[in-house]
User: What shape does this take?
Amino acid sequence: MHLAVLRQMKQALATLNPGELRELAARPVKVGLVAPSAEALGDMETYFAPPHLTAGRRAEAVQLLVRGGGSACDVEIYDSSILRPAKAFSYDPEAPEDCVRRVLRAREDLMLPLARNLYPFRKPVAHKIIRNIAKENALFSLATAIPDIVPSLASIPWAIGEFSSDTAFLTVNQIRMVFLLAAASDRNIGYREQRSEIASIVAGSFGWRALARELVGKIPFGGGLIPKAGIAYAATYAVGMSLERLYRLGYGFTREERRAVYEEALDHGKQIAGMLLNDMRFRRAS
Assistant: This one.
């Protein structure tokens, strides 16, 4: 069984191209800054290109910040004390992270290049990636257990068709998460560059797979589906949070920390799985 799953992983990995993510993260991006004074502009620049960066890295970030904005900018950010165009974003110096969140909600297409180049976007983008991949894994875990339901994951090449093994999909999707987090963290990405992270994910995949199958088998009438999907969510979330710390600080979670994060995420994962399952049943009935 393990060999069959590993073969499916190998097939699925052939469809996963880290080069595409490299290109996406390297997309040029310009952020316009508009404020009522040079001092206010300087404060905005300091937030988006903080002084703890190396001199070279900070200089690169500052080059992406356009004082006064303009039509060449992908995003325009205005100090909250002045009027702004409808498509621009408001920046409150007392709560600058609110501006970051609004930009990411509106411009998800710029998520990776913004995180790669401008430090304040990095952690929010990493957390968004982790939550998205964990939710996808919970959804797939449910969808493969319910007849006649096709997962709404058409944008992911291995989500349908022959790659129907939970373990193959969930593991490869976690590897996709590795590449996304590395790209958002301004790291070189590729199978060689992330080989240790990938090896750890593959090695750990069969443990939670066995636990999930045991739950489904012991709880009658499909009652194990939500715990199973909750495990898929929590395991993915714990892996992702450890990777986020690794790329941000240089070290990941200890075994105890990963377990604590997993246990905390499990209840949330079950809640999400319940909502996804209700939605899938509704779609099936309609």
